[in-house]
Automatic annotation (TrEMBL):
Pfam families in the cross-refs: Glyco_hydro_32C, Glyco_hydro_32N
Protein name: Glycosyl hydrolase family 32
Cell inner membrane as UniProt keyword: no
Sorted UniProt keywords: Glycosidase, Hydrolase
Residue ranges occupied by any Glycosyl hydrolase family 32 N-terminal domain in the UniProt entry: 12-321
GO cellular component, one term: cytoplasm
Organism of provenance: Roseivirga spongicola
Segments forming domain Glycosyl hydrolase family 32 C-terminal: 338-487
Cited InterPro entries: ConA-like_dom_sf, Glyco_hydro_32, Glyco_hydro_32_AS, Glyco_hydro_32_C, Glyco_hydro_32_N, Glyco_hydro_beta-prop_sf
GO terms assigned for molecular function: sucrose alpha-glucosidase activity
Length: 500
């Protein structure tokens, strides 16, 4: 079990203590999901980066392991990825089993920048022959030296089966760069993407590239995830994506280059990438993000540790048959069902304006945080707002479902502790859901933990992730309609047990 610290997430991964940011090196190997992460063990704010490490049989329950990579004479260990080198292309295998290779950015510490030198970030590798428990850095590092670009980081490596070679994609200021390699050591530049595509309100970071099949069709497309900070739709950090084609060397955007599509419309899902080497028979594209935002993550009011990861999600590609627009949907993984304890089902009901429809209530229903709820409401003819409210006698977190303009609006101004950063309370979140109003029902699923909520509309087509710090734990969750009655077709709340 885990110390019951104030605000400690019970269904999300957190480090035992100290500072954490991006998930790194997510790879599946021999029954274990590995999660490495940006970690500074000596403080609760960002500092010289290490790779922390944890493993899980199901992406839900985690075992903390010793730090995997420490800073060295080439610098701090920034974000990156890991792969299993099944064919020992690298030659690093020592025993019977294929080695695991980590590909990361070395960042030369302070000083480099002042000297007007832009070459202080470069890509390096390390290998492990004992299932990620111990690592050896390659002596020829870096494997991708820096040609003079200030922001040059966050390599994600994938195996291109069709071309029998490795592909590295990483962020370089306002674009991503693609390199290929036969052996993970010798890398050749292939192309750039993105200078004229998507959002450029901040620096590009943490890309990922993978193929997805369009749901209900044989069509396959490539998805490029790309985190940007600042410049997110609601301020600060956020993750956009592109859908296109990839020929082994070049990515071509299939969608409007001026449009920005966001994986999550909340303020707190950043630097997320997907797991490598998920067995083919599983077939899912599995994702985890950092539940934080650079606008305030270093000053949130947790004492021993800072930041949690999102719940694991699988990514799915849908295509609108009329507009031809592709959307990436995020769905909570089924493995989370192992946390379910008791459920309460609610009857179909038409709830008058101003009357609360209780989804969670500690006093009457005996339910507490953490929990998840799902409900469906009629959309037809609906013109006015309804709200989803989490509260306790002192504080309140509110989400307004605005039907007039099809916008989900999150407001944490009164959610508890908010004054630790100017831009926390007023970082209002909006997510457009007009598209979903074409369906007869709006389906909402949300997960509430001690200091976060993750909301999924219509099977993850629209997502909003937000952190908050209530002075006391929330004891109620309810729906309330502002003017006309709210037609609730179904609702269920499930108590969740702690993952620790
Ligand atoms: C994203 C990021 C990465 C970098 C890491 C440093 O949050 O800025 O670009 O590698 O964090 O900790």
């Amino acid at each position: 079990s885990f110390p019951d610290d104030k605000f400690r997430s019970q269904i999300h991964f957190t480090p035992k203590e100290a500072w954490m940011n991006d998930p790194n090196g997510m790879v599946y190997y021999d029954g274990e999901y590995h999660l490495f992460y940006q970690y500074y063990p000596d403080s609760t704010v960002w500092g010289p980066m290490h790779w922390g490490h944890a493993v899980s049989p199901d992406m839900v329950h985690w075992k903390h392991l010793p730090i995997a990579l420490y800073p060295d004479e080439l610098g701090y260990i920034f974000s990156g990825s890991a792969v299993v080198d099944w064919n020992n292309t690298s030659g690093f295998q020592t025993g019977e089993h294929p080695p695991m290779i980590a590909i990361f950015t070395h960042h030369e510490p302070v000083g480099a920048e002042e000297e007007g030198n832009n070459t202080y970030q470069y890509q390096s590798i390390a290998y492990s022959n004992d299932k990620g428990r111990t690592w050896t850095k390659y002596e020829g590092n870096p494997v991708v030296p820096n040609p003079g670009i200030k922001d040059f980081r966050d390599p994600k490596v994938i195996w291109l089966e069709d071309f029998q070679q490795w592909l590295m994609v990483f962020a370089a200021l306002d674009r991503v760069k693609f390199y290929t390699s036969p052996n993970l050591i010798d890398w050749k530049f292939q192309s750039d993407f993105g200078m004229n595509d998507g959002s450029h309100g901040g620096v590009w970071e943490c890309p990922d590239l993978f193929q997805l099949q369009v749901e209900g069709s044989e069509e396959k497309k490539w998805v490029l995830l790309l985190s940007i900070n600042p410049g997110g739709p609601n301020g600060g950090s956020a993750t956009q994506y592109f859908v296109g084609d990839f020929d082994g060397k070049t990515f071509t955007n299939s969608q409007d280059p001026n449009a920005s599509q966001w994986l999550d419309h909340g303020p707190d899902n950043y630097a997320g990438v997907t797991w490598s080497d998920i067995p083919e028979e599983d077939g899912r594209r599995l994702f985890l993000g950092w539940m934080g935002n650079w606008n305030y993550a270093q000053v949130v009011p947790t004492e021993k540790w800072r930041s949690a990861m999102t719940i694991p999600r699988s990514l799915h590609l849908t295509k609108n048959q009329t507009s031809g627009v592709y959307t990436v949907a995020s769905r909570p993984v089924n493995e989370l069902a192992s946390l379910h304890t008791k459920s309460v089902d609610f009857e179909k009901e038409s709830v008058n304006a101003g009357t609360r429809f209780s989804l969670m209530n500690t006093d009457d229903l005996g339910l507490t945080v953490p929990f998840k709820s799902e409900f469906t409401v009629n959309t037809s003819g609906r013109q006015s707002n309804f709200r989803l409210v989490l509260d306790n006698p002192k504080t309140q977190e509110e989400f307004v479902f605005r039907f007039q303009d099809g916008t989900l609006y999150g407001n944490r101004a009164k959610s508890g502790l908010t004054d630790f950063a100017d831009n926390f309370a007023h970082q209002e979140a909006t997510a457009p859901f007009q598209q979903l109003l074409k369906e007869k029902e709006l389906k909402v699923e949300f997960f509430v933990d001690e200091s976060s909520i993750e909301i999924f509309l219509n099977d993850g087509s629209v997502v909003m992730t937000e952190v908050f710090f209530p002075t006391e734990g929330f004891t109620r969750a309810y729906l309330i309609s502002d003017d006309n009655p709210l037609e609730i077709n179904s609702a269920r709340t499930t108590q969740l047990k702690s993952i620790w």
